[in-house]
Amino acid sequence: MKILVTGxxxxxxxxxxxxxxQKGNDVYVINRNSRPxxxxxxxxxxxxxxxxxxxxxxxxxxxxxxATYTEEQMRSLLDALSDFDDYIFISxxxxxxxxxxxxFTEEQECGVNSIWGDYGVNKLKAERLLQKRVENAYILRPPxxxxxxxxxxxxxxxxxxxxENRPFYIPNNGEMKMQFFNVSDLCRFIGILIAKHPDDRIFxxxxxxxxxxxxxxxxxxxxxxxxxxxxxxxxxxxxxxxxPFYDYEYVLDVTKQSKLMPDTTPLLDGLKxxxxxxxxxKDSVYNRKPYKxxxxxxxx
Length: 300
Hints:
The chain is α/β, with parallel strands linked by helices. It is 33% helix and 18% strand. The protein folds into 2 domains: 2-145 and 182-204, 3-Layer(aba) Sandwich (Rossmann fold), CATH 3.40.50.720; 152-178 and 209-250 and 266-293, UDP-galactose 4-epimerase, domain 1. It contains 9 helices and 13 strands. α4 packs across α6 (213-224).
């Protein structure tokens, strides 16, 4: 297939581009060439808001829109595209207001989520523009992504703590639940959508089971080959000062996904793969936060 991927140089979009190249597809990426490209892709070197006629006359079997975050970015891409068969947009679970009944389902009303703010609002605006202009587009709403090429300071922080034999500081009792989705499973599910063209157009995607903060941290340490010692921090301390996730628990209903793809990567297996990559690519994690410094100065 001839596939267009937005982005292609960091985390999810990089993994997606590489995955479909390795499957033998003809993959084009749109980015500003500010970071190394995946081997085998065709680069469309430009700012995505200034596409002009760079896509004129090109026909794509699939557009994998991983890097659209606003309505304006969506409009710019749709205006530039000439012809395509399938359009798959990676949106976000941030489009669900936190006041909705959980687990969130695809049929629930979307709107402002006070935790995610403009990020969720802008993703929702991009969704709605796409639905108006591309009737048969697919929209995927993931929870927290993890896996190879992860560039956010999340698992990397826990891996570092494990390597240094540090105790791990958890908010309150560590029972807050989080839901994850491996980037490899995202790619497998995209392949299923392309092959089967299900009637449903919006899918929550993610592991069926959420895990507690304690379980997630324990598995991160286990991926490093270490056992974890927990230290509890009460709610008088701002959670984001010492922990890489917001104080926000939510769960997606992934029943529709599970009917098409019943199995997902076991969390420990995915974390082991991520850690094996991370050991040799620690400089790929951007915007490291001073969690350890805060802990040492205020909690230890």
